[in-house]
Each structure stands twice: as structure tokens, then as C-alpha cells.
User: Fold Diguanylate cyclase DosC from Roseateles aquae.
Amino acid sequence: MAKDLDGRAQAAQLQLQSQWQSVLAQTPLDEQALLKAMVQSQAALLADQFYAAMLDDEEARAFLSHQDVEHRLHASMQRWLIELLGLWDLSRLDECLARQRHIGLVHARIRVRVDLVMRGARRIKSGLLPLLLQAGADPALAARAALTAHQLIDLAVELMSAQYGSANDAAVRTDEAYRSHAATMNMSLERERQRNALIDWENRFLQAMMTARLDAELVRIGQCSYGLWVRHKASALFSQSSELGNILQLLDRVDQVMLPLCVAELRHGALETLRHRVAEVLSELEQLRYLTDALFDQFVHLEGGRDALTQLLNRRFLAPILSREVDLCRNTGKQFSVILLDVDHFKRVNDQHGHEAGDRLLQQLANVLVDSIRSGDFLFRYGGEEFLVVGVELNAAQALQVAEKIRLAVQAEPVALGQQQQLTMTVSLGVATHDGHPDYQRLIERADQALYRAKAAGRNCCVSAEG
Ligand SMILES: Nc1nc2c(ncn2[C@@H]2O[C@H](COP(=O)(O)OP(=O)(O)OP(=O)(O)O)[C@@H](O)[C@H]2O)c(=O)[nH]1
Assistant:
């Protein structure tokens, strides 16, 4: 079903592309020149008209009146018009189409309704002919040029709307895909099967090494049953998982780099070097086993929306939660903040103490975080060793205080690694407060930049995006 939808959406896009192409190819040069001259001198006025139409709508007024939005969107609206009506270069068509799709995605994210965009476009269209005539163009030529401009604007809006629709459908489809796969598969059986497939390949690899027939006999790991499962089934089932990307990279590394090295050593090398190469492959297989287990663990908990390791919220629930907070903030005027947190030098922990110790450290960190925030706040495992707090009804100064409290709590609680050993962990934090901008992605980006500054400032500190 999802595939059919994708296929249909692609066919519709190709159709729009070819229609756009023929408008560009068939428009006479005098029409092109007229539209180009008009849009270059009147883009600001047309953008004003577009916004005036949108601002008629009370809901749109709430987010369009944000100063930053007004400033940025007004400028990008002018660029959009100049590109649409002033650029008659077929070689840049792909770029132009991609831009329309991107605009559609942004609209979906900040939930600008499609009918509002169409209303703005209609206002622009109705202003075009008067502007062309006002510039002194021959009336017949002006009428033809206005018609061409209408076609281009319609095509652009259609492309945006198509993208808007698929962006909204995508989240639902992802859920459906996960659920329907889960329902039809016995996941613990599947996990066992893949474990065995990996062991099977390992045995064949060792056998091929012992009989020195690596070249002829051994199927590449990417081609064996485990590799096929990863590339086809796991990619569909676990498409949002970071482990999957790592697994694919490891498979490539084994096939492209490590096996050729083993072959070379078998032919010409010393036994000691060969042993070393084999050990390297075995260590990569161990890593694959770890990542594959993590993949399945995630799946089991995904249904509940929890991250498997830490039991915190999974980041795919971030979008609906932040959207709702943006709405609440608009209605109540109460600000909320996000705190993005990253463990310092976490790679060293894994390298020196092993992945299991790293996992334990992340679990303990999750507990400290839960204890440091209020029960109304949201806590996400944002990435591997990154966490995100959505602090509701929290202004910039309060959010910075919470971040500092978290930083001190983490530092104060060493992780027990063995009977004797303890490890003090530190974290860096970036804090950003919602400033009324409707796109929550901007808020996360600001927190991310603040976190980057905290790392650059030497780690184990908090930086606020508000300066
Ligand atoms: N044990 C464990 N390790 C993970 C997990 N997720 C990600 N990692 C590891 O976390 C490490 C993150 O390393 P980097 O991004 O280089 O950052 P860092 O070492 O923390 O350094 P800074 O962030 O610059 O202080 C990588 O080695 C990942 O493999 C997990 O769930 N468990």
C-alpha cells in the first residue's frame, strides 16, 4: 500500500515536472523578458500582497506576525517569485522543483494550511496583469505573459501541496509499516535466525581461512543470508534506527576492505599477519552481533514508544510533542525550553571499558535525568549518547538553572564499573527557549548550536542559546 502511494506520488511529480518543462520551453522570449523585468522590480510588492492575503486568516496571523518569520519569509517569498517568473533556464529546473518540495515540507512542519498558500497565490495572480500593463507592455503580450505566470504559480503550489500531503502521511505510514511487520513476524524467532546466520557466516569464514580457499568459496557477508536480511528486511523494519546505518557500514568494511586483506595475506603474507587480519574480522562480527541485538531490542520496545536501553521516550515522538508545546505557548503565552545534553568523551568509555559499561552509564544517566526534572517535563533519548529535555512552562533563566542542576547531579554520581572501579561522568548541555517561531526544528537547532559551544568551551558546562 505504502509502495503504491510512493509510486503514485512519484508519477504525479514526474507529470508536474514535464508540464513545467513544456511551459518553460514554449514561452516566447518577449513574454519571458516581460515577466523577468516585472518580477525583478515588483517582487517586494507581490510578496506584500501574498502576506496581506494570509494575514486575513486569524490562525495564520498568530504565527506569521512573529518578527523573524515575517522578515525571513518576506525575503524568501521575493526570491521564490524571482526564481519562478524570472529564471528561464531549463538546466536549473531540477533545483527549482526541489525548492518547491522543500517549501511544502516546511509548510507541513509549521502547519501552514494549503488553502492559505493557495489564497496568497490567488492574490498574487490577480495582481499580475495590472502590474504588467502598468509597466507599459502591449496588452496582448501582457495578457499572454500573465497566463504563463499563472500556470507556473499553479504548478509550484501543486508541487508544494503534493509534498505537504506526503509529509503528513509519512509519519502515519511509518507507524503502520512497523505495526504490520510486527504483527506478521515472530520477532524472537527472527532474532534467533539472524544470530545463527551470522554464526554460520563466521564458521564459513574460518573454514575458508583454514583451507586457504577464501577467494573461491566464501560468499561475501553482504550477500549471505544475514547480509540480505539486513539490506532488505531490516532496512524496511528499522529504517529509523542509527544502528542500521552502522551495520551497513560494517558489512561494507568487511567485504570491501578486510576480506581483500585476508586474501592478500593468504597468498603472500606471514602467518602472524594473517592471524591478526582474521582477529580483526572476528572483532567486527562481534560488533555486528551487538548492533543486531540492539536493533531487535529497540523493536520490542518501539510499540510502547520507549527507548529499549533507557526506557525514555523515543525521539520519533518529539515532533508531535513539540508541535503541541508550540501551540500551547501560542495560546497561553507561557514559554517552554529544550535542553540538549551530550555525554563528554563517551567514545573513550566504550573503548576503555566496553560497550556494556557504556550502556550501564547511559542507563544511570537516564535515572539521574528523571530525578532532576519535573514529572510534567518530557525526556527523550535523542541519539546514541544524546538526551533531550522538553521543559514545559520554563523560561530561559529557569531552563539554564535546570541544566546546571542536571550537570551537577551527573557529576556527583559516579558509575560503578566493577567492584573496585568507579567512573565519573560529565555532560555538556545546550539550552534554547521557544521564541515564538512556529518551526520547532529551529528551536532544536538553536539548542544544538549552544551544545556545540559548550563542547568547544571545554565540556562539562551549560550554554544558553539566548546568550
Ligand atoms: N555503549 C553504547 N555506546 C553508544 C551507544 N550509542 C552510541 N554510542 C557510542 O557513543 C560514541 C559517541 O562518540 P562521539 O560522538 O565521538 O563523542 P564523544 O566521545 O562523547 O565525545 P564528545 O561528545 O566530543 O565529548 C560512539 O562511539 C558511539 O558508538 C549506545 O547505546 N551504547
Observations:
- The longest helix spans residues 139-184.
- The chain has three domains: 2-181, 187-302, 313-464.
- The pocket of guanosine-5'-triphosphate is lined by residues 309, 342-348, 350, 355, 358-359, 362, 384-385, 455, 459 (CB under 6 Å).
- Strands lie at 313-314, 337-343, 378-381, 386-391, 415-416, 422-423, 427-433, 462-464.
